[in-house]
């Protein structure tokens, strides 16, 4: 009977969610698979952060999201958790030996490696796998060889991803959950065209989340092309 007022919750924390979609405020076993909750508890987290609460609600409702929240607010896991739930929901018609179900684009190698670490931490206990495609000391040929074994998640930088797709190391036919992380940096580093070309090769009925620490005209403009009727989430005054 004591229904929480989400409007009040948003006001208290300066959260915008337009259109309003109910947040997920707890690691609820009806929503999160038990294996995932166990791993979350092991990480020492007892509640989702504000951006996680709101992004989980929107992502699990199947909507696209344009999400802005300050650095350090927990945006990585805000998309990793719903992405994993999305993967577990898929009928595994062609298990493993195919391209990824989820693709995460990062502007830098360092970020890509860090995101891949989180993705592995949460999907490996559920028997899924991640391939990190950003290079460093690994060449395209070696990456292609690993990708051909199949995986559920690919995390990488735009140039390298275009490279491995072109060399047929993997394909994007199965991608239904797409993430563009640090969109503001992606643009300031000049990756707009490359990201656009990757997104243009992913099925249009995919779900897409775009995350950014800052929000401005450029992010707004690309979001219009990359996202489909997105829910706008802003935590605090970044947007
Ligand atoms: P952002 O991408 O918004 O800059 P990160 O995803 O890098 O933020 O997360 C920042 C820090 O918050 C990380 O050290 C992460 O482990 C921690 N963190 C993430 N989710 C939670 C949570 N639910 N509770 C406590 N700490 C968390
Ligand atoms: Mg981040």
From TrEMBL:
Domain Helicase ATP-binding: 56-233
Domain of life: Eukaryota
Family to which the UniProt record says this protein belongs: Belongs to the DEAD box helicase family.
Protein name stated in the entry: RNA helicase
């Amino acid at each position: 009977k004591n229904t929480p007022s989400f409007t009040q919750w948003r006001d208290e924390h300066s959260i915008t969610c337009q259109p309003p979609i109910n947040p997920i405020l707890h690691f609820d076993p009806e929503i999160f698979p038990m294996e995932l909750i166990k791993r979350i508890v092991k990480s020492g987290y007892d509640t989702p952060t504000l951006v996680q609460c709101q992004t989980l609600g929107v992502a699990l409702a199947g909507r696209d999201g344009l999400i802005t929240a300050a650095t350090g607010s927990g945006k990585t896991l805000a998309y990793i958790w719903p992405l994993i739930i999305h993967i577990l929901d898929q009928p595994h018609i062609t298990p493993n030996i195919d391209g990824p179900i989820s693709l995460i684009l990062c502007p830098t190698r360092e970020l890509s490696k860090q995101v891949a670490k989180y993705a592995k931490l949460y999907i490996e206990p559920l028997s899924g796998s991640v391939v990190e495609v950003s290079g460093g000391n690994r060449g395209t040929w070696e990456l292609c060889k690993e990708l051909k074994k199949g995986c559920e998640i690919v995390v990488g930088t735009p140039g390298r991803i275009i490279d491995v797709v072109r060399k047929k190391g993997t394909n994007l036919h199965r991608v239904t959950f797409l993430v563009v992380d640090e969109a503001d940096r992606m643009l300031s580093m000049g990756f707009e065209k490359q990201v656009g070309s990757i997104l243009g090769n992913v099925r249009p009925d995919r779900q897409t989340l775009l995350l950014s620490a800052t929000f401005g005209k450029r992010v707004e403009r690309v979001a219009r092309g990359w996202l489909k009727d997105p829910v706008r989430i802003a935590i605090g005054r970044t947007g």
